[in-house]
Amino acid sequence: MSFYTFLIFFSAISFAFFGIGCFVAPRMKIEFLRYGLSKLRNFVGVLQLLGAIGLAIGYYFSPMLILVSASCLSLLMLLGFGVRLKIKDSLVLATPALFYALLNAYIAFEQWIIL
Questions:
Q1: Which of 10, 39, 69, 80 sits a CA distance of 20 to 30 A from 101?
Q2: Backbone φ, ψ for residue 26 (5° rounding)
Q3: Integer CA distances (angstroms), 92 to 50, 84, 100, in order
Q4: Structural domains counted in the chain
Q5: pLDDT at residue number 28
Q6: 12 to 6, 30, 60, 88, 89: CA distances (angstroms)
Q7: Residue 50 CB burial class (10 angstroms; 0-12, 13-18, ≥19)
Q8: What is the pLDDT of residue 21?
Q9: Is-contact 114 63, C-beta < 8 A?
Q10: Among 88, 111, 110, 107, residue whose Cα is nearest residue 99
Q11: Using the 8-state DSSP alphabet, how is residue 39 labeled?
């Protein structure tokens, strides 16, 4: 398995867990209340699950789907990073969102080159 393939599946598995967490984890309900986005929790969960599924299916069937999924996940996490900054979370708490934004931007960029 190449490093790039590992990154695709790392991101897909991470977002599958994050997406499911939006529906079942009590901590996520509290976090979205803290963000002031409680009405968007399920929507964000669906977007995360769709991104995870898109990365996984795209790997096997559609390179363009990887590009779209990674780009959308990158944007979603960039917005998440912005929310963390807006509510004045520490940089340590905001860093995971930035990490996943950059990771998926890298995946999208590499996929763009491949296409």
A1: 39
A2: -60, -35
A3: 27, 10, 14
A4: 1
A5: 97
A6: 10, 24, 13, 28, 26
A7: middle
A8: 98
A9: yes
A10: 107
A11: G
- pTM over 0.90, yes/no: yes
Confirm if 78 and 103 have CB atoms less than 8 A apart.
no
Give dist(CA 67, CA 72) in Å, integer.
9
Closest CA to 74 of 39, 41, 110: 110
Would you tell me the crossing angle of helices 3-24 and 63-86 to the nearest 10 degrees?
Answer: 50
How many CB atoms lie under 10 A from the CB of residue 39?
Answer: 8
Q: What CA–CA distance (Å, rounded) separates 38 from 33?
A: 5
Structure token digits, residue 28: 């996520």
Domain range for residue 45?
3-114
88: helix, strand or coil? coil
d(CA 111, CA 102): 14
